[in-house]
Amino acid sequence: MRELPSCGVFMGSLGEVTIRGACAEDLERLLPFYESLDAESLLRRFHGFVGDFRAYVEGLRRAGAFVSIAELEGKVVGAGEAVPIGEDAVEVGVVVARELRGRGLGTAMAKGMLELCRSHGVRRFVAYTDPDNVPAIRIARKFGASISMEGDLVKIVFSF
Predict the structure, then answer these.
(1) Which residue has better confidence, 13 or 88?
(2) What is the DSSP letter of 4?
(3) Rounded to an integer, what distance in angstroms lies between the CA atom of residue 98 and that of residue 65?
(4) Label partner for 14 (CA 20 to 30 A): which of 25, 75, 77, 78?
(5) Which residues pair with 59 in a beta bridge?
(6) What pLDDT score does 109 carry?
(7) pLDDT of residue 2
(8) How far is the CA of 153 from the CAs of 24, 27, 30, 43, 133, in angstroms?
(9) Quick one: three-class SS letters along 62-123?
């Protein structure tokens, strides 16, 4: 199995939560996390409902995505993905377990992803979110991203 570029990279911590780059064997651990997300979280992260998380996770591996996980007591409580969309660009998405939101974990995960991807030559991050996803928009503003509307979604772009 091809290893992910993020494998084993320590990205930080927030209290008892550890954020690190996921390895290929960690991808299986993402399934129960994604499947545990409530409808609102799924809609905000995936802009719809995903029928087959196994296929989605396999697609991350095939794409050579940068994937991070946040762990608390051995359980995945957050996931971030940066999927290549060009030579030096990635599309980014982060989702945090509802019970841990509002504590800075999404910001810490985004920061870790930015630093990791930048070290691999990525120069542009793109993300899409719903206009009512205030936490995602707040994180984007913290990093100085440009924010605009594209159809019904907010487009967030951060360039180095």
Answers:
(1) 88
(2) P
(3) 24
(4) 25
(5) none
(6) 94
(7) 55
(8) 31, 28, 26, 12, 10
(9) HHCCEEEEEEECCEEEEEEEEEEEECCEEEEEEEECHHHCCCCHHHHHHHHHHHHHHHCCCC
CATH architecture assignment, domain 10-159: 3-Layer(aba) Sandwich (3.40)
- Give percent above pLDDT 90 in the chain: 68
Contact between 108 and 141 under an 8 Å Cβ cutoff? The reply is no
Nearest Cα residue to 94 out of 63, 60, 123, 70: 70
Q: What is the pLDDT of residue 37?
A: 93
> What is the Cα–Cα distance from 5 to 11, expressed in whole angstroms?
13
DSSP state of 136: H
Classified as helix, coil or strand, 156 is: strand
Residue with tokens 């409580």: 77
3-state SS record for 41-76:
HHHHHHCCCCCCHHHHHHHHHHHCCEEEEEEECCEE
- Judge whether 17 and 105 are in contact, CB under 8 Å: yes
pTM for this one? 0.89
pLDDT digits (tens, 9 = 90+) for 14-28: 889 999 999 888 888
